[in-house]
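I would love for you to help me understand the pair of lines that follows before we discuss the fold together.
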Amino acid sequence: MTVARKSVGWRHTLEWREPAVGFTSRLAGLNGLSMRVFLREMRILPHDLDKSRRDAIDAVATLGNVDPEALARFTPFPWGDSKLVTIGAEALHSSSVRRTYFCICPHCIRDDLSDYQGPMSARPWLRLDWIVTHYRSCDRHNVILVPKTPIRRRYEPFDFTEWINRTVVELDDLSASTIAAPPSPFQKWLTSRLEGKLDPDCWLDDMQLYAAVDLCETLGLSALHAPKVLVTSLTDSDRAAAADEGFRIASQGGDEIERLLMRLADAQSTTRGFWGLRDTFGHAYGLLETTKTNPAYAKPRTIFRRVAVARVPIEAGTDVLGEILEKQVVHTIRSASNTSGAHSLTIRRLFERKRLRDEETLQLMDHRVTISSDEVDELLTSLKTALTTTQVRKATGIPRNHLFYMIKAGYLTTVTGSNEKAYAKHRFTQAAVDESLERLFSGVVSVAKPTGRQMSILRARQASVSGLNEIIDFLFSGRIWKGLLSGRREYGALLVDADEIIAAIREGRSKSGFTKAETAKFIVGMGRDSVGKFVAAGHLELVEEFSPEARRNIQVVSRQSAQAFLRNYVSLGELSQNAGLHHKQIRSALRRANIEASFDPEAFRGFFYVRAAVKGALQSVPDLWSSGVKRKA
């Protein structure tokens, strides 16, 4: 049945952004009634107004003499069967609208009391900002909104004017206790959206409002708080600051969001425990995880997925915000170990040797050292089927020390780049082993019956008194003859000529330094026992040189240090030899010339003098040696 209605006598004008529930409450108060009585007398079901049914909105518009569209403009309406409400052209979550309580700014209410006429309780008006949960402060007075709980009746909207009537006496206390808050860029943007004003330069403004608001609030939480922060433990000021920070980041676009996510990933890399996406990116990732099938969140979801895959070690086959990761993009030492089957310590040392990560990063724990899979995929694949040192020895018959020299010299390359360390846990590809054997057996001659000097490498080493390393070098360089026992092809069947090895070792090689005995002959007057004393004191230098006679490297006194010693010092033996006098006579003459031995004769087993001092004395006293000699009558 259609009810004929006309406007009531007492009414205020509809305020901008005043929802229908607030307008109705104030209209009832102006006419001396509670809202529930007013609605029933006007034959409007309170439940219809509570549910924002259009018939009830239109009826209230008629009673208040306002345009129904204007009254509906900032009134939340349910959106079909979804859990959304619409305010104008925008959509918010139904939970974004307070239906059982509201928040107020005491200063705004004081302003309303002075701006309007009529009953005190009917002067203040309910702002849309006070029933939308995303508003936490009053941008006019810069204070945090104060939550208030009115009398709630089942199936009826709350009566704002009734609450004002009960609370107006407390208004001074409420005003005095408000908490200051800075102007909110997030709320300014939210108001613009609700008023239908879009900014083409704002990255958020082509998203559904509920999704954009969710992103701002959770992104701010991720930026300002720990990933697992309990939201209920935060104050309204904390949440307002988070929303502003989230808006600042998101409004600038994907690059700024990506920078935040990179920072969060870097921060997580220094922690312990399981490296999870929710633990890394916080509440913002939790939001996108729970809405991964909702197209409204597609823009931020794409950015989060891209950064997550690029910076967090996620296993292949993992669902990342609605998409299955086909290939792991980031490895840690631990995941690389699991993938390759190699021990994590092997992987860590591999990273160190190949300088795949800087030293600072390698100080982190195994599950926090990250590396791009593009850098190590081929390496990890090789490690899966790689051979150990033991396996190579069994397959080739190469003795342990022979094999280690081949590795160190680079004749057998390792997967892990561990050539420089003899006893490292080397790994080899089958191809590398085959290539090394091919070089080793290249040019071999089949031998049915070896001659007396054709023998295995082990025997030839003893027979030629040479180093193993040199023989292996000769084999790989092809400098010597190589034979192979007929019908066999393993390392132990390889033959070499011992005499050829001796000749090859001596070819083009000589020794310039001196052994101890040779040093004693080169420096006249120095005994063999003295050589070691002067070496220890630093007056002679020991170096390692190849000895053709010994066919190996030996320690010798360098020729340069021996010559320098002779230039600086002269021995008593050399002076006695040159003068043809007894050494006691030479010593007596030197004492008369005030020339003393430069080194302790007892410690260095000999007398040595500064050559320049002796030379100067002889120039001053040419008959120095003969002047003290007693001749027979």
Notes: The mean pLDDT is 86. The first strand starts at residue 77 and ends at 78. Residues 260 and 376 are 27 Å apart (CA to CA).
